[in-house]
Model the fold of this input.
Amino acid sequence: MDAYAPQKKERVFGDVVLSVDDISLSFGGVQALANISFGVREHQVLAIIGPNGAGKSSMLNVINGFYHPQQGTITYKGETRRQMKPHQAARQGVARTFQNIALFKGMSTLDNIMTGRNTMMHRNLLWQALHVGPARKEELEHREFVENIIDFLEIEHIRKTPVGRLPYGLQKRVELGRALAAQPELLLLDEPMAGMNLEEKEDMSRFILDVNDEFGTTIVLIEHDMGVVMDISDHVVVLDYGRKLADGSPDEVRSNQEVIDAYLGVAHD
Amino acid sequence: MEFLTAIFVTPFVEIVSYPIFFFEVVIGGLLAGVMYSLVALGFVLIFKASGVFNFAQGAMVLFAALTLVGLMEHGLPWWLALLLTIAVMVLLAITVEKVVLRKLVNQEAIILFMATIGLSYFLDGFGQTIWGSDVKVLDLGIPSAPLEFGGILVNEFDIVAAVSAGSLVAVLAVFFQKTRIGRALRAVADDHQAALSVGIPLKTIWAIVWSVAGLVGLVAGIMWGTKLGVQFTLTLVALKALPVLILGGFTSIPGAIIGGLIIGMGEKVAEVFWGAAFGGAIEDWFAYMLALVFLLFRPQGLFGDKIIERV
Amino acid sequence: MLYREAGQFKSSYDEDQAIFPILQDRIMLAIVLIVAFVAVPLLFNEYWLSTIMLPFLVFSLAALGLNLLTGYAGQLSLGTGGFMATGAFAAYKLAVAFPEMNIIIVFLLSGVITAGVGVLFGIPSLRIKGFYLAVATLASQFFLIWMFNKFPWFTNYSSSGVISAPPRAVFGDYFVTGSSASPQAKYLFALAFVALLALAAKNIVRSHIGRGWMAIRDMDIAAEIIGIKPLQTKLGAFAVSSFYCGISGALWAFIYTSSVEALAFDITRSFQILFMVIIGGLGSVLGSFLGAAFIVLLPILLSNAPTMVGLNISVDLISHMEFMIMGALIIFFLIVEPHGLARLWQVAKEKLRLWPFPY
Done:
């Protein structure tokens, strides 16, 4: 039974950094999320799983302020809130990637990742128009940081390529790069490995774990590939039709009868 | 102070003291609004069926009216001229589909929009190259005597215009809801690719919808042409249809009608009672400002669906 | 062998980020500037300078302004004419009210005033997008023109509604505005303005501000989620764009025509500028210039072509033909290359870089 169990060293987590309490969200008559609560500890990798339409993406959208829940609160870094503007969330260190790639198609890989640094660049219009002194210095500092990310993700060769021309797997990687450029404390990944082949999935898993290890970034991810989920996550939340079915370590979730019935055991699509 | 009085006091005093005059203005505005609706209708049809914001609708109105008048000036009886004009508008629709739309399929909406601006320039130039640019009188024998209803004067022509617009809308509604082509049109409006995949001939549908928009343009052209004379300024009338669209929502036929009525009425009432306070001619921009203010509160228009954004 | 980047190694990110990283491009630009600043004023006669080069410069600046807003920030505007009028009338009022003020300051201030007006009319962009916004900008177009027409204060109670640019000089006594200034002086002054503003525009669009604009253009929701504030970004784009359009309007009134009425900036002007941007290339500084050149030269070509081949066509007909050809060209361009002349240029450069071994 434990053949799949991850061979991990004992992992140390901090306090609860994000806690979701009793969140309900509906669109007109459709209940997308019903009374969801869970917590994420610092440095943890938490996976949200569930069948299509379970409300996983809606959950991420609520966390980073894109959707406003009708009920419930979100406590992030000790601050409790009902709703927030997405750009405020970004400024508080929440970054994310998207299920359907949301890159800026008209821009190069480098520029896309540079946009991730935008919240940290402050030189005003006049300096930029002149492009001298502080503006230039600032640009170069951030370029340096972005180049490190490019190295880390092994995408040096496509630095200047417009992202619209890149294959799917690389686009996903650029998107991760853009999220990382913001130096997030909490990283939300919406199906980072969807549609990838085995090799690409391995690469992506490695990047995610490296980010978690090296920068201590807390990660919440949505993924359908159970092998990957069980391997890389510390904690799993299971959603089904907007309800929370289970919440626990990968092993606990795997042996939960309700989860098996609703998701793992019964063929869905 | 004087200015504030002119805005907040005088107009209301006038309205209360001369209610009959006020009603005349309102009804005149509503009837003019019907004409805006007619132009807006053409926009909505094409937007619904192909997602193209057809800026050339105004040029089509002018072009249709010019062709009709031009043919009649060459001595054709009005019914023959009308038939020929319809044929020309259908031909135009087919050409547009073949030469423009087919080549730009899958481009971004904004590119298509700009292409229709180009089309609008082309049609304006083409129509005037062929038929000349003098103001032409269009007389189809529609009566225009003032009629009196309970003390309120209404122009007979305006009523004819309103009735024809009303019947046109009714016919279109039946066409959209009850016929096979109508169903196909709605399917195309929902999703091009899905419609293609169940075997709806997209190109034919586009040609049909542009033809219908051309006919609506012709009706609008006849009405406006009779009222203002057939001339270049008709394209400016078409620009007035844009705020109507904003008010009504881009995809709603009832929205186009009601938006037109609101704009027509608002504009007339504003000009007559408030115009003096601003120095007159506020008709130039009132409709746009009204639409703009409206947008701030209800971005999806009166009848549009609330937009749920997804990522 | 002419156009290669082989052998030009960059050893720092600074070098890699230079405005023209390839040596040949730098040489080319230097040649263009020398031609523009030295050869053109020496070789071109007055007719060419004042009826072709001046409008070209003025239009380029307006197109650049609109391109920043529409091409880079993705906000479609049909109000360019209104903003140009604002610049023209602001410059006029300033120049007349403060005769001692340096004309350069006057122009810059009129740009700032226009930027303010642009921000005001850009506010709806926070709630509405695309076509809705385009229609909303029509409100600014019609309202502003109506305002300048209606209130005689703007024209200092001129009975005809026309403003005439007062003569102003730079560097002591070089008159650059008004009807008495020499075409050469006007041309050089306008050129300097346009060249510097174009450089500034290029710098802005490759800064974090420009990236913010493009992010909003390409996918506004994602942009907001990664922390780009839609409010500041969009209004910033409106401000900068209007600044450029305003100065362009001021140059029009003071340098190109010397006297102007509000109707010169009506809705057709807005479309004309939009066409320049489309034909030149959305999201390209170079494209703004190419588009302006195209639209300025086309009518001249069209009105001279028939007489050149011996045809006698009435002026009326020519103007209609111009409409037709313009419309057809727009459609043609959109079909063949939606990204305009600038993209054709870029493709040509890429081909040249690989030539003669394209694979």
